[in-house]
Amino acid sequence: QVQLVESGGGLVQAGGSLRLSCAASGRTFSKSALGWFRQAPGKEREFVAALTWSGSNTYYADSVKGRFTISRDNAKNTVYLQMNSLKPGDTAVYYCAARGIYASSSTYPSDYRYWGQGTQVTISS
Question: Which of 1, 27, 49, 93 is most buried (most C-beta within 10 Å)?
Fold first, then answer.
């Protein structure tokens, strides 16, 4: 029942910032653990960040720690990924995902049931 739609991607110079948004429909959003993943051409889908359903804990891949921040606004049914100090290596299609109601956070794509369509992020050097 959950539908996720990402937005906010684009082209930005190295060192710049972007904020990705993921708008959700479905009443399970507020009780679902959420995550962001990315996939570059020729590479496997990679974990980026995750948030518990309560919103009290966040988790990040080592490659983005200190640069990216995941957050959610249940009133707006939206999850965000604030990306700062962007690098060319961050170039990828970014996906938001939801595990399901009351599920624990996870870094594995296979644990997520609902996915957005993806938004392209391109970082120029």
Answer: 49
